[in-house]
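2024-03-11 09:14:02 DEBUG pipeline.ingest accepted 1 chain
2024-03-11 09:14:02 DEBUG pipeline.ingest length=266
2024-03-11 09:14:03 DEBUG pipeline.predict start
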Amino acid sequence: MSVVGVDGCRAGWFWICLTRTDGWKADIAPAFSHIWERWVEVESIFVDIPIGLPDSGGKERLCDRQARKVLGIPRSSSVFPVPCRTSLSATSYAEACRINEYQTGRRLSQQTWNITGKIREVDQVLRSCPLSKGVVREVHPEVLFWALNGGASMKHSKRTKAGFRERLRLLERCYPGSQDIVTVVLNTYPRWAVGKDDILDALAAAVTGKLGRGSFQSLPEDPERDSTQLPMEIVYYWCQSGSVRFQGRAPELLDESKSRRKAQWH
């Protein structure tokens, strides 16, 4: 079973595929549609982006509220309100705030506005490609780490050295070979293109897909659906011990010619 974990990055979208043969590939795509076109036949594509958007109303998505609850302080601050669907068409932060406030009673945070374009990309793929529904699913990195760690949130911020080491140790424990993957990726792509935390977030999504093998849970258990019938859910794989080991050889780069090149984007 091949699975793909995806996280937005400065250069577009960073993805990691863990393959059926226990190898792996990683690259950066300029658009989410490119990822879908390349990996249309994989079992799952887990992406760190909101899927299922409200049209109006003052209530936040139930999945976001539940995610904050399980994460607790301070990791709960990483879950922020999503925009309403009509605000995706805005061409400026001020316009998006006006639309969102009119529809929901809340202005958008700058963080939300910064990823609005990426939310729109994923939403367009899901709405225009029926096959993508059920394959492309929403995850939240801190929820993934919480679940892989047996229900214990990470102690340190992911943007700190301690937070990076904490998350990488957990991934290595759950999926031996994660350290090697991260080392190769760090040596392949510059930090202006993909951050260290983006790499870990995408790998956590891929590892979740590989370990879960279809046995995934979601917040909430019975997701709400938006007006386009997209689920408002955050998917995760519960690892009670926090130390499940994947049975198989350590992943390796399938295309060795890429391991030391500088990526090119258009």
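2024-03-11 09:14:41 DEBUG pipeline.report The first helix runs from residue 32 to 38.
2024-03-11 09:14:41 DEBUG pipeline.predict end
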